Task: structure prediction
Amino acid sequence: MKYFLQIAYDGTAYRGWQRQEGVLGIQETLEETLSQVLGETISVFGCGRTDAKVHATQYFVHMEVNAKWDYDLVYRLNQNLPNDIAVFEVFSVADDAHARYDVSERTYEYYIHTNKNPFFDDRSFLYQHKKLDCERMKTAVNLLLNYTDYLSFCKTPDHNNTTICTVTGVSFIWTKSKDQMKFTITANRFLRGMVRVIVQRLVDIGRGDLSLEEFEEMLLKPKSPEIKSMVSPSGLYLTKVCYSYHDSPFFTKPPPYFN
Result:
């Protein structure tokens, strides 16, 4: 029997989603808790790979079990999982359903704040340098909808058969005082490091180190990039995962300080 679980996690303490030798991952933590609670060895397959310290407010995994449980599994899992991982729902799916390969779209959000705040630490990117030109950054964001090859924004282009991504939605908003900003992007697929590289280029534009023409040239004539820096993973959230056969409710959202 196959089931999907909807979960969320604060990625601060983890080396990413994937199980890795010698470091703590979310996959490993979830598998060990499921195996303990269900009394059998459980492997889970996630809807994508998030890097170290990246968060997810909506994330799906699938698992196969030999026997149906007769108790509140969500409650028991949450009693045994650490506080930075939560399970919201468990539902049955077809035997051929796959948490990763069946995804039609994902949405990521990236948060920036410009004033030091101890309550934002590890959950947003603190930028304290030259004042950012938000209007120019928004103009650059809107250019993303016009192009499909994101080779110039991929951390590991050699690991992909293609760097084509269909971006279906973008936005860039900020508070009146411009001390908090949010970038949102929706696409059918994402490349390794793609969102953080894009945001780094937006910051470069905002502080006048990169022109809009140079940014559009990266989209118009993509080439393997020399990535010297990326914005911090702390500001990145996977916030929405879509499947054609299931419409799950949202149980949480990124920190409520930005509305």
